[in-house]
Write a structure and sequence with these properties.
mainly alpha, two-stranded antiparallel sheet, about 55% helix, flat
């Protein structure tokens, strides 16, 4: 198996992988997944993206600056066409 140009050993044999696929399809856990159902649970889940600082004030401000820069460059490129 190759990943990013490097050779890696497969951890499962083909037969084991097929057996695990059949087990997963038989159980179909994605059919039973319902996510949070209570209002409190939904409020907690809505904050998952903020858990590791990806949406802190500094990153949001920087993203806004980059987006404005992108829009300015796009206008310039559109005029050049």
């Amino acid at each position: 198996m190759r990943y990013n140009g490097k050779q890696y050993k497969q951890s499962w044999a083909k037969e084991r992988r097929e057996k695990q696929t059949q087990i997963c399809k038989a159980n179909a856990p994605w059919n039973n997944a319902s996510g949070p159902t209570t209002i409190n649970g939904k409020n907690i889940a809505s904050k998952n993206a903020r858990k590791h600082g990806g949406y802190d004030a500094c990153n949001l401000a920087f993203s806004a600056i980059l987006y404005r820069h992108y829009l300015s460059l796009k206008k310039i490129m559109d005029r050049a066409r």
